[in-house]
Structures are given as structure tokens and as C-alpha cells.
Amino acid sequence: MLRSGACARSACSRSLHEERTKDLEFFFQYLVAGITYGTIYAIVAIGFNIIYNATGIINFAQGEFVMLGGMTAVTLHRFMPLPAAILGAVVLTTIVGAIIEIAFIRWLRRPSVLRMIVITIALSILIRETALHIWGESVRSLPYFTGSSMTSFQWGGVYVSPQILWVIGIGVFVVAALGAFFNLTMLGRQMRACSANRDAARLCGINAGNMVTLSFMISAAIGALGGCIICPITYVQYDSGTPLAIKGFTVAILGGLGNSTAAVGAGMILGILESFSIWVLPAAYKEVIAISILLLILFVRPSGIFGSAEAARLKDF
Amino acid sequence: MVRRYSAVFAFALFLVAIQLATLFAGAGYYLTQLTMTAYYSLLTIGLCMLIGYAGQISLGHAGFFAIGGYVSAFLTTCDLTPHKGSALVSLLSKSGVLVFRPGLYGGTLLTVHPWPACVVAILLTVVIAYLVGGPVLKLRGHYLAMATLGFGIIILRIVLGTESLGAADGISDVPGFPLFPGLAISGDSSLRVSNYYMAWGLVILGMVFLLNLVHSRVGRALAAVHGAEDAASAVGIPTARYKLHTFVLSAVFASLAGVLLTHYNGGIGPSEASVMKSVRYVAIVAAGGMANLWGALMMSLVLNYLSLRGYFGTFDDAVFGIILLLIMLFAPDGLLRRHILADLGRMFSRNAAGEEGS
Amino acid sequence: MREPASPVSIGSHDYERKEEKMRKYIGVVLGALIASLISGAFARAAEPIRIGAIFAVTGPASFLGAPEAKTLEMLVAETNRKGGVLGRKIDLIIKDSGASPEKAVSFAKQLIEEDKVFAIIGPSTSGETMKIKGIAEQGKTILLSCAAAEEIVNPVAKWVFKTPQKDSDAVIKIFQEMKRMKISRIGVLSGNDGFGNAGKGQIEKLAPQYGITIAANEVYDAKASDLTAEVTKIKAADVQAIINWSVVPAQAIVIKNARQIGIKVPIFQSHGFGNIKYVQAAGAAAEGVMFPAGRLLVADVLPKSNPQRELLIRYKKNYMSFCSGEECSTFGGHAYDAYTILLKAIGQAKSTDKEAVRTAIEHLKGFVGTGGIFNFSPTDHNGLNVDAFEMLTVKNGKFALLKK
To answer: What is the ipTM of this complex?
Structure first.
């Protein structure tokens, strides 16, 4: 890209060209960062949507599933190789999700939305405190799946860590797998029937209660997987679940509650907006962006960008 | 009506008895945590009004507490001596809004007098509550919950990220609040007894106000709104307006509590605006019985007192989480109801009758 | 009990026997009296010395408070095993404030007025310390803070001391190294907590003195999960070095992200990096990072002549066995120093009179601690200067001295 020139004018235009190239590089670097954030948020949001679709509940404990996945994987990794540890973490967290549903949610009679919100908040607190007393307060990390914390691919002037490719790749896989599950398998179609109209589904012989448990299990599994794949990039600590949950449901609402494909899009939007906000705002206020977007959407269009107002009103537990 | 006030009178006697007991036991130091509890209780009864009687959940009430506390802390510690020359500053200091007071480490500071600072804090809270409450209260269910949660988090972020508000360290060296000539709200250990009575006196005033409100036309309208909003609106009750006014009222209670506790503690930190604090307040209101002012007050007294004395050790947050979970699972209408045992029995026997799933 | 013999008795033999009995009886009574007096004196002397501690054991500052609390428990157990101080055992009361200033205020008042503690160690964060500075002064109780802010000891308050090193000294150490490396244009990233703020302020203040210009200055959230955007902004400023000033775990993410987007310039950290877990979290990216720190982290490689060496090695070993294999960090060292300083002062004052011990602390010179060599004075309630720091680096995933 650089060519030595003798003429002053060409040198001037060369430096302008350089600057523009640099700007473009940084633009793409911010974009990649935004897509990375976005995928993480989308994974959490999908977890929210699955439970919401099956039950009409917003599960505030979703972030804790992510945290549990990471923590468990780190502990298991001490005894087994990384892929086995991740699998084990996902399985264990899925079991925890099932236990939570069976112990706390299953036997509730027509609970009000308010009651469910508060219950899931209380559950998230308890899971967090239990994690604190099991694992202590120190931060833990998984090793990078491929390479190390230094390696990165370079495309043009943009650097991408291989872990980011894992995050995006697994994110795509999760969305595709869920799509296939809900559209092509019997179980998935049963779950969709339940979320569309529970009583009618029951009349068809579908066990609605088990569908709810299954939804919790799937959400927990997705959350745990998400936790494992982002753990190398960041770190996991007993309270790293809550901030993710907040971003996650911002994205879920942004895309329209219950719409997982929209969640991916919304996740990208939020991630990119947050990333580029650094350009204009001090980084300390980056969190405010997500919350402001949340409030804006709630005030202006609670059904989300891609959602429909009617469908939003039809949901109940 | 006599019954309503007799409870207040009994409670006041109870408070006096506690103070006398500590006097005779020579254990006046218990009054410190009791006084702090009083201010948190002021917030709690306001929140109870909103959640229990108006039926609107707020997961961001710590935000209003923080607004009150931070505004008054900022105004009473921001030294305006460098601007002594300006016309506005000299006008304000002549009118008594600004005062010279000795700094903690010598020298004099020119700061806002606590009274106008408190008024500004409350006014700002009212404005913000109206601005936020308008759109927020149009939402229902989990959207409302998340909007209030979002509000609380924004306040937390602003407070954490702004240097002039002390960022993560908060604001310290806040002077005492001269409530009456000769009586000041301050953490001075020699003023323990007077502070105790001032704090609980305010709570009792608040209780009386709210009890009157509950038993008035407004209170009945709120009960209607809570019970069946559409029906209430069909009967002609301006539901949106009442919800908004209740929201602002509870915000004012929270803000006032924030102002006074900040003066009592001599400072405030961003932890007062945290999500956990908001959840705690909801837990206490829920534990007391959503629509039960006395229940909320009693629960606040017990739980906040124990928490402030470090009774729960490292399990502080866990305790509130467990309380919240148990109350919501087994007694969603609150703990302090007469028929609680009968309800529990009925609930479990219904389960045993074998209905499937949810 | 036998009845005392009457003083009047018949017959000299009887009289003698009775006198003997009397003497025996008096002897027994006197002996019992003396014994009870002595044991009473011991009982009074055996009254324990109450020390209070306010730490953020859980919550957002738990990486500070938890090691501090464990260190203190370990030390008190050791002291009591050896018989205590001045013949009295130590009674330790630890309160978990969760980094909440209002809890710190409540606990401080409780410890001073109710538990009537002799001294308070902690709190872990500067925000909490500033709130209870006045309470300690009013209650005339020694406060040995484990928080880093300058304003804790500046202006000096009679009863308030702090054990962590000065931020300004850490910054000076970094700038001295930069001058050696001929760096003049830097980017600064700081965490949005009190420690980060304080450091940022010191960096901005001292940079002109060392001829250093700050080309980019960003504050990031302590709870952030990815900081690529922030470090990209720093990269855009084309700097020769980066200072990453933070005490929270997110500082590890900064290092990772910086190296991943191809930043090759040297990265300097603050003394808040003094925890091997941060190095592990940053992985291979932490290689070559430079930071000023107390010598605790490189105790093994210190020259034998170093006065701190033995103390540090012993602390490392004891902490590891007390905490089942967990490695110690410099944060726990602050509590270690606070406690040992207190004990030394009690020994020197030979009493537990608060005023006497306070004065003893103020006159402590050449005290060897984990953070450095303390030299207190009535105007210096911190006692450490730039020599408390050593420039360290990370080599092969472990802390090492930076070779010049």
C-alpha cells in the first residue's frame, strides 16, 4: 500500500490515503469488536426467548447459567481435556436448569407475572451466592480453544482472535441447530405448539409441564455453552452473570420477545452501537448505551424492532 | 379511625421503650443501627404504597434514594470559595442559601446550606419521577419491571462514572442536617438519642400520612386500580394519574430518606444505587405483605437492623434472596397475614390432589 | 471445715496443738487469698485485646477483602498460638462490608462504641475509608486502612494510618522506567473504580515532570467483558507505551485485547496487578508486561541481603498452607503489615493504651513489612516511599524482577 514518492504533492496525498486506510482499519476493528459483543449478547438473549416462548416468563437467572457453565468448565478442566470439560459443564448446567424448574416453578398455580419476575430474580441471587461460597471470589479463565491469548489472524489491518471465530461459529451453529430442532423434530414442534396455545396442545396429548422443563434445560445448555466459549476471551467470576443477563434481555426485547432470529440481529445492533459509542463517548458511559436503548424501546415500541404488538400481548404463563 | 392511630401510638410507645431500655442497659450504641434502619424504613413504606396499593413493581427505587443522597451530598460539599466574587454566588450567600462552614481539616468552605440542598434534591426527584414515571407506568408486567430496573442501573452508572460525584468513592465529609435550631441530624455519637427520635419521628409522620392516604378516597381508588385496572378505569378513575402520583410520592419518600441518611452517615457511595439494594427493598415489602404498611415497616425494622449489624455475615445478599424466594413461592401476598397457615395447608393439599404441570 | 481452735485452752500441749492448727488454718486461708489474688491478676491480664476489621470479603471488591481477611485470621491464630501479646490473646472481629460505605459506617460505629475495639484494620476500599475517617477520629480509635487513596493520610488525621504504598510512587517508578526506555508518548487506560481514578489523577499530574505526553486517555468499566474497542482507540493514537491502571480483574482483558489487535508497544500495569490470577487470566499476552509492586511477588529471587526476604517467604508459605494452596497476593500483604505494625507498636508502648500505641506507631522507623520498609512520623502516616516498589515483569507466566 505504501509506495515511496519523490513529489511533495504525492506524499501529501499518500499520507491522506494512509489516514483513510487507517480509519477504515479502525472502523473494521470496531466492527469486529461489535460483532463479538453482539454474538455473546445474542446467545444470552436466545436463552431468554426459549423460556419466554414456552412459559411467558422472563428468566432473570439466565445470566447465572452462563456463569455456571464457565465456572464448571474451569473446574472440570483440571481433571479432563477441554472438550470433555465443556461438554460436562453444559450437561451439569442443563441438570441445574431442570432442577430449578422442577423445584421452584413447576408447581406454581397461575402465578402473576410480577411473582415470576421476583422469583427468578431471587433465584439468580441464590445461584450467585452459592457460586461465591463454592468457588470463592477469584476470577477464572479457560484456555483458548485454539492458539493463545496472543494469536490473531490479520486481515488487512484488522486483527481477529481465533476465539472470536469460535464464538461466532458456535453462535451460528446454535441458531441453526435450534431452528432445525423447532422446525424439524417432533419434540421441537410440540414445544412450539405449547407456546402457541397451551390448552390446545394439552388436548393433543402434549405434556405441557415437561415442555416447560425442557425449555429450561435447553436455555441452560445454551447459556452454559455461551459461558464456555466467551470464558477464554474474558474471565468468569461468581458475579459475572448479572451484567450479561441485563444486556441479554435488552437484546431480547430489542428484537421482540420470543423471536430468536431477531435476537441475533438485535444483538449485532446493540453490540455494534456499543462498540462505536467509544468513538464519541467516554468509555465509562458505555453501559449507559445499552440501558438507554432498553428504555427507549420500552417507551416507544415494547414489542421490539422486529416484533408485533399484538403477538406481544398474547403471551401469558 | 381511632384504631388506625392507636397502632401508631402503640408503635411510638414501643420505640420509646426501646430507647429507655438501651439507656438503662448503658447500651446506647444500638441506637445507631436503629436510626439508620429508620431512614431505610421511610423508603420501604413509600415503596409499599407503590407496590402493594398501586400494584406497580419498582426494581429501581434505590435510584431515587441515590438521587436524593447524592444531590444533597454534592451541594453541601462542593466548595464555591473560588467563585466568591461572582454576583450570583454573593447573592446566594447573602440570602443564606450558601454558608461558610469550617472544613474538616481546617479552612472554611462555602457550600450550600443543607435545607436548600434538601429542597433541591426533592424537587429534582419529583421532576425525574414525573419524567420517568409517565412513560414507564404505561408498561405492564415484565416490561414495567425491566424499565424500572433500567432506570436504577442508569442512575448507578451516572453516579459511578461522574468524577464530580466522587465516581466509585462516593462523597464524604457531608455535614449534619440542622432539622431544628439546636437539633441536627448527624452521626455524632453524642447526639445519638436526639437523632433516634428525629428519625423515627419522621417515619411515624410518614406512616400517619400514608395511612390517611390509604383510607381516603385516593387510597380506595388505588386499591381499585391494583385489583382490576381496566374495571377501575371504566368506572372513571383516572388510573394513569393516580399511578403516576403514587410513583412520585414513593420516589419522594425514597429521596428524603436518601438525603437524611446521607447527612447522618456523613457521606454516600454508589453502593446505595445498586441493583441489590433495590431488590432488597422489594424483598422487604414482599415479606411484610405487599399491601401492608405495618408489615413492611416491621420487616424493614427487623431485616435492615440485622443486616446493618452484620448479623448475616457474608450471607447478607443470600439471606435476602432466600427470603424473597420463599415469600414469593409460598406466600405471595405477604407473610404477616392472619390466614397464612390455612393457606399453606390448602396449597399443599391441592398439589397432592395431583394436577399436572402448570 | 474444722472449727478454729479457741484461743483459750487447757494444758500447754493442747495449746500448742491448737496453735499449730491455727497457724495451719491461717496459712491455708492466706495461701488461698494470695492464690486467688494472683490468679485474679492473671485473669485480668488474660483479658483479650479486641481488634476489629472491616473488609470487603464479598461483593465487588472481594479480590481485595477476601485475601486480607484470610491473612488476618492466619496471623491472629499464629499470635494466639504463641501466647498472645503482653500475655493477652487477640480477639479478632471481622465484619464483611461488601464494599458498601454505609455498612462500613455502621460497623465502624459498632466496633468502636459497642465492641470497644482497641484498633480497626481496614477497610479495603478508599471510599469506605473516607467515610469512617471522621468516626475513627471522633472515637479516638486507631485505624489502619488497607486502602490506597492519598487522601486517607493527606491531610493527616491523628488516628488514621494506611499501609498500601502511595499511588504517586508507583507512577514515579513507571515514569522512571519509561524515561530509561526513552518513551515520551503514552496512552492511558484506567478502571472506573476509586483505584483507577486515583491513579489516573496521579499519572496526569506527574506526566509533564517526566516529559511524557498522554495522547489517549480512556476509562473502562470494571465489569467489562471485552475491551477491544477501547484499546483500538488507544492504538489509533499511535503511542509508544500504554499504562493500564486498574485493580479489578478486567485489566487482564485489556492486556489480551491489546495484544490481539496487534499492539506491540510495552504495556505497563499498576501495582493493582499483583495477583497471579490476573496473569493467568491474561494468558500468554501477559508476557513482558511491566509493573511496580511490592517485593512479595518475587520473594524467592530476592538477594539474601534484602531485609524483606525472610518475612515474605514465610508469609507466602504460611498463606498457601492456610488457604489450601491459594497463592498470596499483595492485597493480603496490606492487612499483614497493618497487623504486624499494630503488634510492634503495642510491644514498644508496652501497654494497650490507645494514645500510647498511636504515638508508638508514629515513631516506628525501619519497620520491615510486606509492602516495604515503613518509616512513620507524625506527618507521614503511610511510611512508604518510592523504594517500597520494585519494577517487576511477567516471564513464563510467573512474576520476575525486571532486569535493567
So the answer is: 0.87
